[in-house]
Design goal:
The protein has a domain at 66-156: Beta Barrel (Lipocalin), CATH 2.40.128. It is α+β, with helices and mostly antiparallel strands. A hairpin with a 5-residue loop joins strand 3 (93-98) and strand 4 (104-112). It has helices spanning 3-16, 29-35, 132-135; strands spanning 73-76, 82-87, 93-98, 104-112, 115-120, 123-130, 146-150, 153-156.
Length: 158
Amino acid sequence: MKALPLLFVVAALAACSDRPQAVDAPAPAEDHAATTPPATGTVPAHNFAGANAAPATPPASADTPQTEASYLGRWTGVEGMYLVVASKPGGGVTLDMQWDLDNKGTFDGSVTAEGLRFMRSGVAESAVHTDGEATGLKYLAGKQDCLTVKPGEGYCKN
C-alpha cells in the first residue's frame, strides 16, 4: 500500500518533465512521418520563454537552413557576456563564451538544422538564430541578428 503513493508521485513527476521519453528502438518510418511536425519557420517557444509564451518567430532568413558562416564571429550579450564562434580545422566550430558572471569556457560545436549545437557542463545546448526580442533580454530588444540559447541567454551582432 505504501508503494501506491510513491508510484503516483513518480508518474506525476514524469508527466511534468520537459525531458523527452527514452526510446529503445526507432519508430517505423510510417509512424515517424505522422509524428514529425511540419517545418514552419518558427522556433519553438520552449527554446526562449516559459511555457505560457507565444512561439518566437526568427528573422526571415531562418526559413532556409543556416550555413556555418552565418554563426561565425563575435556575438555580444549583456553585462560582459559574449560568444565567439570560429571554424575548426577538419570541420565543426569552436565556441569561446562567457555565459554568466561566473562562468566562461571554450566548447566544440557543430552547425545542424536545429542550430549551433554544443555540450556545456554536460548539457546539450543549442544556439538558434533569432532577433533581440526572442532572447528575453531588454538590452538586446530591437536587434535583428541574434543567437538565443535559452531564456535570458542571448547574443547579438552589432
